[in-house]
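The material for today's practical consists of a large collection of protein records. A record pairs a protein's sequence with a compact description of its fold. Instead of coordinates, the fold is spelled out as a row of discrete tokens. We will come back to this pairing of sequence and fold again and again. Here is such a record, shown just as it appears in the course material.
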Amino acid sequence: MQSIWFFDDVNLFKVLCPHKFKAYKKEHDFDAYKKKDYIYFEEDSANKVYLIEKGKVKIGYYNDNGDEIVKAILSKGELFGEKAILGDNVRDEFAQSIDNATSICPIGVTTLHELMRDNQTFSFKIYKFIGFKFKKLERRLQLLLFKDTKTRLIEFLDELCSDYGYDCDKTGDHVIKHPYTQKDIASLIGTSRPTLNILLNELKEENYIDFNRKEIRILKKSA
């Protein structure tokens, strides 16, 4: 299983968290969160970025109607709040723990800039990460604007296979163990949960997928 948030098989947490560096270790602590605890809210000051040591974090925002829009579900080794690196002073999204034992490595923007300045290769990896993440969000926006709902779901499943799947480069079944609820998936592809249920069952009847609460299996095509 692989994750798009890892570059060249390097877990950002392993090389970035300040407790790994002698100059910062004594002054650094991890932050612990329970399920539904917020790490930050929209409009909060953006003066840190965060790495996940363990647990899961939901990134999202609320639209004009007050509905929650989920942008991503992140897990161990992944980075969020990265817009602060580029100079954003205020959050335009929220970050919320969705695990009862989430541990976060917070990094002040000033500290991060110092680490990046001292290591050109690592600095390149951080900017590559940011660019890749923005590219993925742009692609998702294009799907929402130009594709019908069923196509959006199928392409999202392909994306999930890249992010959370096993054997996605082989000819057999593609097994996806993912952290999303059906509500999250519906939000990510811009539809309602009832419509998502209908489409999932249609794909199941077409022998395209099989699924349960935590796993989706993209079925091998018959010759």
